[in-house]
Amino acid sequence: MNDQEHPAPTAPTASSTRVGVIGLGAMGLGMARSLRAAGFSVGVHDLRAEVAAEFARDGGTAYASGGDLAAEVDVLVGVVVNAAQVEAVLFGDGEGTGGAAERLRPGSVYVMCSTVDPAFSAALEKRLAASGIRYLDAPISGGAARAASGELTMMTSGGPEAYALAGPVLDAMSAAVYRLGDSAGLGSKVKIVNQLLAGVHIAAAAEAMAFGIRSGVPAEALYEVITHSAGNSWMFENRMAHVLAGDYTPLSAVDIFVKDLGLVLDAARPETFPLPLSATAHQMFLQASASGLGGEDDSAVIKIFPGVELPAAKTAPQEEN
Amino acid sequence: MNDQEHPAPTAPTASSTRVGVIGLGAMGLGMARSLRAAGFSVGVHDLRAEVAAEFARDGGTAYASGGDLAAEVDVLVGVVVNAAQVEAVLFGDGEGTGGAAERLRPGSVYVMCSTVDPAFSAALEKRLAASGIRYLDAPISGGAARAASGELTMMTSGGPEAYALAGPVLDAMSAAVYRLGDSAGLGSKVKIVNQLLAGVHIAAAAEAMAFGIRSGVPAEALYEVITHSAGNSWMFENRMAHVLAGDYTPLSAVDIFVKDLGLVLDAARPETFPLPLSATAHQMFLQASASGLGGEDDSAVIKIFPGVELPAAKTAPQEEN
Fold it and tell me: How far is CA A235 from CA A153, A225, B136, B248, B272, in A?
C-alpha cells in the first residue's frame, strides 16, 4: 500500500496501525478475523490460550499475556462480557489477562466494546486519560455472524484524537459506525436502550408465540403472518425461528439478558426513572434462568409458559419437506 | 370483462359479485375504494350518511339503511370497531345500521374485519349459518394508507364455500390474504396475537425512547441507531417517527390499544394463561388514557414518562433543513 494513494497521507492505515483484540468469544473472534482480512497486523489474547493460538495459525500473533499484547499495539479492542471483565483486563493483576492499562503506551486507544453501565464507561475514559491513553466507548450490535463478516453496528462516542487513530479499525469491523458525540458514555447509553428493546422484544415474542400456540394456531402459520404484519420485530423474526426449529442451542443465552436487562434497570434507578416493561421482561428471564434454562438460547424464555406444546427439534431436517 | 378469458369460468368475478361495505372509517373507506377500483359494484353504508354519499359521488351506491344494503349484495364486508358494533350491524334493531342478518340472502357471505374475541367470532359463524349465511373471520392489519392502496394483510379463516364467493373480494383489498384454516376464530386468534405484539412494542418503544432522551441521547440519533439495530420493531420505526415530529395527531389512538390489549387479556383469562408484558403495556395505555391522552395518537403513551423533554412539534417543516 502506497501512502501517496491516500487523500490524507498522515492518516493511520491498515498497514501502519497495530491492533490488539482481547477476548475471543463469538464476537471478538469474528472481529479479529475481520481486522486481519482488512490487512491489519492483529495480535490477540484470550484466557483460553488454545483459541488465540488457533486464530494465529492463519495470521497474526497470539499473546499469552494481555499486558504484553497491550505494550505492542496502537489500538486495543476489548471484547469482554461485562464491566468486571473490562476492569480485570485493564487494571487487574491476574496472570495472563490483566494490567493492560499499565502497559498501553501514551497516545494509544482502548476501544471498549462491552455492554456496561454508561456511568462506568464515562469514568473509565477519565481513568485512562490520567495515563495519556485515549478511549472510545464503542458497544456493538449484530451477532456473531455479522461480527465474522465485518458488518457489525457500532454505537460509539469519544474524543477526536481517539477517532483519528481508531476510526479505520472501527470501519474494518462494521457496516455502520455511529458517532454519537465526544462524550464517553453516549455509546453505552444507546447500547443500553437497544438492549432494553431487544430484551423486551424477545420476551414479548415468547409471550405472543406461546399464547398463539396454546390457543390452537399452528406455530408456522403464526410466524408467517406476524413477520408480515405490524406486530413484527427484528427479534421476533430472528428468535422465533429458533422456536420453530425446536433448537435452543445458545447463540445468545438467557443469562445474557438476565445480565443486560439488570444493567438497564441499574442504569435507570439512580435517575429515579420507571421502566415497567423492562422490569417485567427481566423477571421473565430470571424465571427462565431459575428454572435451569440460563445456558440455553434466549428464545428458551418461551418455556416459562406452561401447557404449551412447542415445536419439537428437527433432528433430521434433510428428510423433511 | 369476458368470462372466457378466465381459467375458471364459473368463479365469481368483479363484474358478477355485488359487494357491500358497512363502516366507512379510515380503514373501511380505503377498502371500499380499493374494491371499486378493482371493478366491483360497491354499495356502502355508514351511520354518517354524508360519508357514504361522498363515496358514491365517484361511483357505487350509498344506502341509508344497512339492512337495505345487505339485501342487495353477495358479500357484505363489515369494517366496524368492535364486537358490540358487529352485533349491532347484524342483529340490532337500530334505525339505519342494524338488522343485516335478517336481510342477507342465504348463500351470501359476511366478511368480519373487526378485531374481536376469537370466541365471539367462532360463535358468530354458527349464528349466521342458522340462516344459511356464510362467514369469514377476516381481521385486517396494515393501517389506513395500505387500506387505500388495496395492500392490507388479512388474517382469515372459514369454510370453502365462503372463500369461493368472497376470495376475489379479499384479494382486491389485500397484498396478502392468509388462509389459516376452515375454523372461524383462527383469523381472530392471529389478529389478537398481532395486537398483543403491536401494543407491547409501542409501549416498549415509548419506554426506550423516553429513557434514552432522559439520559441525554439526542432523539434523532437514537432513532437512527435503533432502526438499524437488533432492537428495532415495525412499531418503533413507525410510531417513534411521530414522536420525533412532535405530531400526536391520531392515526390510531391510545384508546384503541386500551381496547385491544384489554381484548387480548380477556381472551387469555378463560384459558388461565398469563401474559405479563401485555398486562403491563395495558396499564401504560390505561395510564395514558386516564391522563387525558386517550384521543391522541397511540405514540402519546410516551407522555406518561415524567421529566422527559420530548421533541417539539415542527410547525413549519418547509422552512427547516
Answer: 16, 15, 31, 27, 27
